[in-house]
Amino acid sequence: MRILTIVGARPQFIKAAEVGRALAAAGLEEILVHTGQHFDAAMSDVFFADLCMPPPAHNLYIHGGGNASMTGRMLQALEPLLDREKPDWVLVYGDTNSTLAGALAAAHRGIPVAHVEAGLRSFNRAMPEELNRVMTDHLSTLLLCPTPAAVANLQREGIAAGVYHVGDVMYASALSLAGRARRTSTVLDRLGVHDSGFSLATVHRAENTNDSGRLASILAYLRDAAAEEKVPIILPLHPRTRDAAARFGLDLGGLTVLAPVGALDMARLLAGCTRVFTDSGGVQKEAYFHGKPCITLRDETEWVETIENGWNRLWRGPGYRPRRPIADYGDGQAASRIAALLAGGAG
Ligand code: UDP
Q1: Which residue's CA lies nearest to atom 13 of ligand 1?
Q2: Fold entry, domain 2-168+330-343
Q3: What is the pLDDT of residue 346?
């Protein structure tokens, strides 16, 4: 059984590292393909090192351009690659252009697609991520859902066959990274902060970075929160946000801005902070895995259970609901369940 995994962006490296280990343990052969969507040392190489991932078997070096152009170029490069590799499954993650290109190229070639993080919906079609995830789900044979809410979303769209609630693959990786990060990461010393002495923020979604007024409001909101809490807000800045702030001439003063950090430094920052501000899907969940309250810098979230159970709230929404543990993400065994489903020829 040959599984061809397609990754291209930071959150996909994290999930694929966890699932890759489970595939190997189940005796499945994995061919790792990097589309090149995230390509530099801080957004790609550091994750392969921190997560002890083998280098990809193929790198397509495709990045930049608009969403349609990037997806199109990936499709063009993937088609001959799939013909050469002849995998039994194509495995894709999340909601990026790499996800959709991988799923569509495989579907064109009649190769079954397994989608990790299937069924998530923001119900906001203005987001490129929403278009990517909806289309990928409709092309997939095996839909690997992190939560019961994701299963229900698929049912509403008429997708019932091949749907499994496996739990969240980031749960186990967050916990194991946290242990390693406490032993090895020096990020707190480098920044001159100590445990419980700072908040952590990330901002990178196109909906927040494409609009100068909106990005300015978010930066002002973070600055006000830092002043109010009297603790620094540490903001590892995604290249897209850094470029947008420079283009719009926005002031980053009052925030501790740094280059994006690797998985281990990020886990250490999550473990040490008091509060998380983010527009990232993954970071909303990681805040919960680390027991930290989150404020989501968006007008909706796919991770509705973080809100329902009082760990998260929207920056312009109502306050926190009463706090309860979240059962929906499962028991940390999502990766081995995914491997077992692929090995069993599920779907
Ligand atoms: N992350 C990281 N360094 C950073 C910012 C984020 O390692 O400087 C990690 C984060 O912990 C999470 C993943 O990247 O595991 C989330 O990726 P991102 O926010 O880019 O994408 P999303 O989850 O929104 O798809």
Answers
A1: 11
A2: Rossmann fold (3.40.50)
A3: 58
